[in-house]
Write a structure and sequence with these properties.
single chain, alpha+beta, 5-stranded antiparallel sheet
């Protein structure tokens, strides 16, 4: 039978192996974590440049990836230092429970952030477009020109307000719960113009009277 590798080493080196081997494992964990973080950050930056994502979206995503990798690396290092796996699992489940509670408490904010990501990638509308939110296709709703899109709100310059410059701040999540009527790069028609265009006699010459 083959003898263990340590049996071929001098007796004075065996005590050092108990320190050197865990130390090398910890260094390897840190190196892999740093390399993985570097590659993921570059991937996020490349995706952001390709799809023209705003820095307000890519920076929080990079921070989330960084802290997730650091937390995973920390747990692995603690395990190599002799911390019980049961203690690690208890701590992880505790943090997960707190995170789940915080997630549901901030659901509205997170849903707006996710919808902002969809707006920046799918682009159902862009800056300068005029849109109208409808509960149903026949019922008019909020309408205006898109002047700003951030992580929480889409700001519209209200077309129906008598005061120029009035803004409507609509949560991004609400955009995906309504029918959206869009006019690309132009002003939305006024209600009078819409009524005139929908009239059956619009643009027609009345028949001569007998």
């Amino acid at each position: 039978m083959l003898r263990p590798f340590t049996s071929y080493l001098p007796d004075w080196t065996r005590d050092w192996l108990e320190i050197i081997v865990p130390g090398l494992q910890i260094l390897l964990i840190l190196l892999v974590a740093w390399l993985l973080q570097y590659l993921l950050r570059r991937a996020v930056s490349r995706v952001g440049r390709h799809y023209l994502l705003p820095i307000e979206l890519t920076m929080p995503l990079k921070g989330l990836l960084r802290w997730t990798i650091m937390l995973a690396a920390l747990m692995l290092v603690l395990e190599r230092l002799g911390v019980s796996a049961t203690v690690l699992w208890t701590a992880f489940t505790g943090f997960a429970t707190v995170g789940a509670v915080a997630f549901f408490a901030a659901w509205s904010v997170l849903s707006n952030l996710f919808c902002a990501f969809l707006i920046f990638t799918v682009r159902p509308y862009r800056l300068g477009d005029s849109i109208e939110l409808l509960d149903v296709a026949e019922k008019p709703g909020a309408r205006g020109r898109v002047v700003d899109i951030n992580l929480l709100y889409t700001s519209l310059e209200d077309s129906d307000s008598p005061t120029p410059g009035t803004l409507l701040q609509i949560p991004n999540a609400l955009i995906f719960q309504r029918v959206v009527r869009r006019w690309k790069g132009g002003q939305a028609p006024t209600p009078a113009a819409q009524a005139a265009s929908s009239s059956p006699a619009a643009g027609q010459t009345p028949p001569p009277s007998l």
